[in-house]
Amino acid sequence: MNELPNFFLADLPSEAVLTPTVLREACLTLKRNRAHYLAGRTTEEIIRVLCRVADNWLDAEYPIRKLALAEGPAKTGFGRATIERGLDNFFKQFTRENFFALLAQELGDVRRLDEFVAAPGETRAALASGPELLVHIAAGNIPNPTLMSITLGLLARSAQFVKCGSGAAFLPRLFAHSIHEADGKLGASLEIAEWRSAEAALADTIFAEADCVTATGSDETLAAIRAKLPVRTRFLGYGHQLSFGFVAAEVLSGRSAKKTISGAADDVVAWNQSGCLSPHVVCAQRGGEITPEDFARLLAEELERRETGEPRGEVAKETAATIASRRAIYEVRAAHSADTQLWCSKDSTAWTVVFENDPRFQLSCLNRFIYVKAVRDLTEALHGADSVRGKVSTVGLAADAPKQIELASALARWGVTRVCPIGQMQNPPLTWRHDGRPALGDLVTWTDFEK
Amino acid sequence: MTSELSTFAARLRERILSQPRDTSLGDEFGALALELFGLQFAHNSAYRKICEARRLIPATINNWTQIPAVPAAAFKELELTSLPRGQRTHVFHSSGTTEQRPSRHFHNAESLALYEASLWSWFQPNVLGGFQFSAFDFQLLLLTPPPELAPHSSLVHMFEVARQKLGAKKDCFVGRLDANGAWELDCEAVLDATRTTQHALLLLGTAFAFVHLLDYMAERNLHLQLPPGSRVMETGGYKGRSRELPKAELHALITERLGVPAANILCEYGMSELGSQAYDTEIYPPSSILHPRCFRFPPWARVQIISPETGREVAEGEAGLIRVFDLANVFSVFAIQTEDLAIRRGDGFELLGRAALAEPRGCSLMTA
Questions:
Q1: Are B339 and B358 in contact (CB under 8 A)?
Q2: In the predicted structure, residue B240 carries a pLDDT above the cut 70
């Protein structure tokens, strides 16, 4: 498949001009199509379509997948293998069981988007309804959050308008095409468009039509969107978050060390470390068989190996310059003190590991640039991360099973909203509570029926 | 201990003052650079450690381009100087309000004498080219605080040297400090001067000072027509001290509000870690009419544009990080790696911006 049909606004040639009139028409069409084709569908049917779409994506011969992998590197900046692994990990989650688990978790019963269901022992029944028109303002970093938003919107039977950042619509657009191909009627309730955020009149138009708006972006972006919404329009804002890893001393020996290093490398390589769930820092506890310094060195060796099979790809000159400038500083520090060590790719900025014998959290410049920090324990790591407290989404944890619950509890009390095994940071399950909130549950409105 | 460096500095100063535009220094540049590297390796211990860590020592280096460069930012952390503590009579700090630890470039009387010889010898032809070199022919306005209020600014030191050489009065500094110690501009003083002058004006200042002035004029809907021959020199980044404008837009506004044509607006590129400055004037034949405005250092400093990916010099027309090899940095470090991006244009460069300000892809929580 070389050419996709023109279904979505994002399919139009770049010279096509979007106007408020065009967008208002598009919103009205979406609502009409929803009423005809989507609102009456059952949850079972929607899940069936979603699973079929995912099966297609996981098929190496599926034309849209092939297109994503062929053109993705040029369109997104991610290497082919990175896109492949990121999308595969995402679509593997799309099973009937997983969707049922999500519905049960968020709505208490899988049937509640179809009919009134009473909880066991209760006479009151409840029915959940999704918004008529759901608008997503997507961030440009990585595709999965946008694909997940669309998926949740389909479960909620909402007409959806997805606004991507300029130049970031490629994979969401292909996903929309794959839905349209599997079930044209579902595709007709979905619109994908992209424009520069500066074009405010366009956003205003869709905001006026929306019942619920989700947005991902900086605090300033979210504040600006919230200020523009009519007061009764529901707003779900997901501010930028960051993540880190914690490796306990007891796993830094033998086989479990190898597994932990491999997992940490997975987390750095996934989507080139560009998402909110990617680690900036891995805190390694002192006292294990392998020292934090050695952990850093072994992680560097692993990243070098990964570069062969899953190269990072090119980055913008400014990004490369930032990486090079940061490396230069750490190289100077390393020359003067063993408390800092630096390992990095030769003749490229492809990967960088900085070891610091200093527990203070550091923001990475990402693109496979990871800090390893030696810490006494989790308490010291959290103390060092005080500057980013309240903004931490995920902590990738490697520790002995008996200790995990204690560490996870400490992380929860500190404000972390997700703890997962190291290596899985960029693979949240379908049931992931986005930034600690029920992602599907926040979309719906309940009707209680007191019999 | 540093007498060899003192001798080197005196020789270089003599050379700069006697033949400031002698491009034949080019032939000697390599030899002088290797000599200076040997001395700095011997006398600058912080620098020596960096060289040793890279396994680059005088015995293994036979070309100036191989001499290890240190990042300008390392001046924040290390004492990159050959001057013993007791001899450091003066220090220049990097500017910027957000910096917790500024760069420190130490000087003594000898190194300041060399700095002044270097700056003035390149300032004259670039900034004053075509003027009679006397304060009677034009009025100087310096949009920074005076030296006593900014003793650690290399830029203010440079302006003060120029003021003294030109015989201008002290009151031509029209900047001051606000309650927080940040630089601000006495815009009324600038406007008074522009209204009363009988001569062409020479305005020197930072880009953010010009933005403040232009904003002040815009609020009052003021348009001036500076006398014919007036010139503007702007320099430096913004560092959060005013709204930021692309250079072309800033220059267009200067033309609009002050009536100074584009041909009379020039830019300087300098930093506290360097002993020499670059200007984008065309006092030498332009390398190409296609890109007439590119920066050049004086003959005693050279520039390489370095690929951030490979660490090697980029090809003509490509972008990379600016690395400056400055013989005037006798008592500190000869080779300085900046975080500024530029395009290589012949023996000069076209400035693009600063790498560290580039927004990292992904979550943008960068605060510093």
A1: no
A2: no
> What pLDDT is attached to residue B293?
74
Alpha helices, H only, chain B: 3-18, 25-43, 45-53, 109-127, 154-166, 187-196, 207-219, 247-258
CB A233 within 8 A of CB A207: yes
SS3 A299: helix
What is the model's pLDDT at position B284? 44
Q: Examine the domain organization and report whether B149 and B212 are in the same domain.
A: yes
Q: What's the pLDDT at B67? A: 98
Residue in A with minimal Cα distance to B54: A335
Picking from B221, B253, B269, the residue at the C-terminal end of a domain is B269
CB of B332 within 8 A of CB of B326?
no
Give me A420's structure tokens. Answer: 């997962």
- In this structure, are B49 and B126 located in the same domain? no
Burial of B65 (0-12, 13-18, 19+ CB in 10 A): middle
Q: Find the DSSP H helices in A80-196.
A: 80-91, 96-107, 144-155, 170-182, 184-187
- Please return the burial class of B320, using the count of CB atoms within 10 Å of its CB with bins 0-12, 13-18 and 19+: buried
Residue B367: its pLDDT value, please? Answer: 29
B54 interaction partners in chain A (CB closer than 8 Å):
331, 335
DSSP states along B71-107: EGGGGGTS---SS-GGG--EEEE---SS-SS--EEEE
Cα nearest neighbour of B79 on chain A: A336
Structural contact between residues B213 and B183, judged by C-beta atoms closer than 8 angstroms: no
Residues in chain B: 368
At B279-333, the pLDDT tens digits run 998 644 444 444 557 999 999 999 999 999 999 999 999 999 999 999 999 999 9
Q: Are A156 and A113 in contact (CB under 8 A)?
A: yes
Q: Are residues B42 and B82 in the same domain?
A: yes
Domain-located, residue B368? no
Chain A positions touching B355 (Cβ under 8 A) are 318, 321-322, 324-325
CA distance B302 to chain A (A): 20
Domain containing B303: what range? 3-88+298-355
Model confidence at A195: pLDDT above 90: no
Q: Exposed (0-12), middle (13-18) or buried (19+): which is A30, by Cβ within 10 Å?
A: buried
On whether residue B107 sits in a domain, the answer given is no
- What is the mean pLDDT of the segment spanning B115-121? 96
**Which CATH number is B70's domain given?**
2.30.38.10
Amino acid at A93: Q
Claim to verify: residue B256 and residue B192 sit in the same structural domain: yes
Please name every residue paired with A136 in a beta bridge, in sequence order, or none if there are none: A162, A214
* pTM, entire model: 0.92
CB distance A365 to B339 below 8 Å: no
Domain count, chain B: 2
Per-residue pLDDT, B359: 32
ipTM computed for the complex: 0.89
Point out the residue among A274, A347, A388 whose CB comes nearest to the CB of B361: A274
Query: Tens digit of pLDDT for each residue in B134-154?
Result: 555 789 999 999 999 999 999
Convert the pLDDT of each residue in A53-106 to its tens digit: 999 999 999 999 999 999 999 999 999 999 999 999 999 999 999 999 999 999
In a domain, B364, yes or no: no
- Chain B: residue nearest A346 by CA? B310
B157 and B264 part of one domain: yes
* Residue tagged 């300041």 (tokens): B112
- Counting every residue written for chain A, the total comes to 451
